[in-house]
Amino acid sequence: MKLPWLHSLFARLMLILIVGIMIVLAVSFTLFVGERERLGRAALFESVAQEIATKVEVLDRLSTAEREQWIDQLGRRRLRLALRQPSEPLRPLPDGHPLPAALRAAMPERTSAAYAHERPGMKHPIIIAVVHLADGTPLQVRLPGIPPGPHLRNPEPARLFAALAALIGGVGLLTWFAVRLATRPLSRMAEAARALGEDPERAPMDIRGPTEVSQAAQAFNQMQQRMREHVSERTRILAAISHDLQTPITRLRLRAELLDDEPLRTRVQADLDSMQALIKEGLVYARSLDDAAPAQAVDVDSLLEALREDALDMGWKISLSGSVGVPVLARPTAVRRALWNLIENGAKFGGAVEIQVSSTPQMIEIRIRDHGPGLPESELEKVFEPFYRLETSRNRDTGGTGLGLAIARNLLRRQQGQVHLHNHPAGGLEAVVVLPRKPGSSAA
C-alpha cells in the first residue's frame, strides 16, 4: 500500500534519515549498555586487586606473630583475610573474568588465583582469591559482598527515554532543516515550470545556489528563452502568411465579381469570406499565445455591461447579475476578447445566455451559462483544442473555425486565469471563468 504523504521527495528523505538515525541510535545504545557493564566490572575488580596488593605489601613487612594480630584489622572492609589455603570445594572463575587479570596486573611477581565458592541457599557464589606472600604463606581473600558478575544499576527508564527523545528530536529538527534546504531548489524549479506554462514572459529563475542547482536554473532559463523565441517566430510567420494571403484573396474577390452566374458568384464569395475568417482567427490564436500587454486596472462590471449591450444589439438574449465592485488588475483587451468568445459560443449554441458574477478577496468568478443541449462529458476538455469542432457538417454559420474557446483559454491563462466547462444541473452548458485580483497569484 502506498502512503500518499510519501509521494514528495521531502517526505521520503525525511523518512530515510529519521529511520536510519533511529536504527543507529538503537544499535549504539545496545553497544553502550554492554560496554558500560563490561567497563564497570573491570573497574570494580581492578580496585579490588589494588586493595589486595596493598594488604599483601603490609603483611609482607610484618612478622608471623604480628600478622595474626593484624589480619582481622586489615580485612574489616569488604575483604575477609585468612592466612591459610581454602578448605571448601572451589571452582576456578571462568575465562574472561576480570579479577584474575586484575590480580596479575597489580602483582605480576606473585602467584595468584581466583575461585568461586558455591553455598546452598545463597543467590550467588562467593569469590575467593589466593595470593602467596613473599615467604610462601598463602593469603586467602574472600569477597562476600561482591558477586562474580556485579549488577550495575541501569538508568531510570523515564530519564533514559527523555534523553533519547531529546536526541531524536534535535537530530530530527536538524534533518528537517537539511532536507528542506536540499529540496527547496526543486520546489522553486517546479513552481517556475508551472508559471512558465502560464506566462512564458515571466522573469528568469535565480541562478544563485549550489553548482548543480545553478546549472539546472541556467538550463531552465535557456529553455524559457528558446520557447519565447519559438512562439514569437511562429507568430511572425502566421502574421506574414496572413498578410500575404490578403492579396490573392482580394484578387479572387475582384474576379468573382466578373462572374455572370449569380449563384456561383455567391458561393465563391462565401468561400472567400470563410478563408479570410479562418486566416484572421488563426492569427488571433497565435497572438493569444504571445500577448505581452501590461496589466492595468479593469472595471469588470462596466466591461460585462458593455458586452451585454453589444450582445443585445446583435439580437441575442442575455442577462447579467452580480458585481465585483472594485477594479481588477488584468489585460483589458484579452479579458474582453475571452469573455466575448464565451458569450458568443453560448448564444450560438444555447440560445439565451445568463452571466453571473461573484468575487472573493483573492479572485473573481464569472459564470456564463446557456440553455442548449450541453456537451458529453468526454468533450468538455476537447473543445478547448485548436480547430476542434463537434459539428461534423463543418458549417461555418454554426461551427465556426474551432478556435474561439482555445483563444479564450490562452488569453485567460496568460494572466494567471482559468476557464473550464461543465454541464449545468438544470440544463445547458456553463463556462466558469476565474481571474486573480492581483497578477502573479494563480487562479485555481
From TrEMBL:
<feature type="domain" description="Histidine kinase">
    <location>
        <begin position="240"/>
        <end position="439"/>
    </location>
</feature>
<keyword id="KW-0597">Phosphoprotein</keyword>
<dbReference type="InterPro" id="IPR003660">
    <property type="entry name" value="HAMP_dom"/>
</dbReference>
<keyword id="KW-1003">Cell membrane</keyword>
<feature type="transmembrane region" description="Helical">
    <location>
        <begin position="12"/>
        <end position="33"/>
    </location>
</feature>
<dbReference type="InterPro" id="IPR003661">
    <property type="entry name" value="HisK_dim/P_dom"/>
</dbReference>
<dbReference type="InterPro" id="IPR036097">
    <property type="entry name" value="HisK_dim/P_sf"/>
</dbReference>
<dbReference type="Pfam" id="PF00512">
    <property type="entry name" value="HisKA"/>
</dbReference>
<dbReference type="Pfam" id="PF00672">
    <property type="entry name" value="HAMP"/>
</dbReference>
<keyword id="KW-0547">Nucleotide-binding</keyword>
<dbReference type="InterPro" id="IPR050980">
    <property type="entry name" value="2C_sensor_his_kinase"/>
</dbReference>
<keyword id="KW-0812">Transmembrane</keyword>
<dbReference type="InterPro" id="IPR004358">
    <property type="entry name" value="Sig_transdc_His_kin-like_C"/>
</dbReference>
<keyword id="KW-0472">Membrane</keyword>
<keyword id="KW-0997">Cell inner membrane</keyword>
<protein>
    <recommendedName>
        <fullName>histidine kinase</fullName>
        <ecNumber>2.7.13.3</ecNumber>
    </recommendedName>
</protein>
<feature type="transmembrane region" description="Helical">
    <location>
        <begin position="160"/>
        <end position="179"/>
    </location>
</feature>
<dbReference type="GO" id="GO:0000155">
    <property type="term" value="F:phosphorelay sensor kinase activity"/>
</dbReference>
<dbReference type="InterPro" id="IPR003594">
    <property type="entry name" value="HATPase_dom"/>
</dbReference>
<dbReference type="GO" id="GO:0005886">
    <property type="term" value="C:plasma membrane"/>
</dbReference>
<keyword id="KW-0067">ATP-binding</keyword>
<keyword id="KW-0902">Two-component regulatory system</keyword>
<keyword id="KW-0418">Kinase</keyword>
<feature type="domain" description="HAMP">
    <location>
        <begin position="180"/>
        <end position="232"/>
    </location>
</feature>
<dbReference type="Pfam" id="PF02518">
    <property type="entry name" value="HATPase_c"/>
</dbReference>
<dbReference type="InterPro" id="IPR036890">
    <property type="entry name" value="HATPase_C_sf"/>
</dbReference>
<dbReference type="InterPro" id="IPR005467">
    <property type="entry name" value="His_kinase_dom"/>
</dbReference>
<keyword id="KW-0808">Transferase</keyword>
<dbReference type="GO" id="GO:0005524">
    <property type="term" value="F:ATP binding"/>
</dbReference>
<keyword id="KW-1133">Transmembrane helix</keyword>
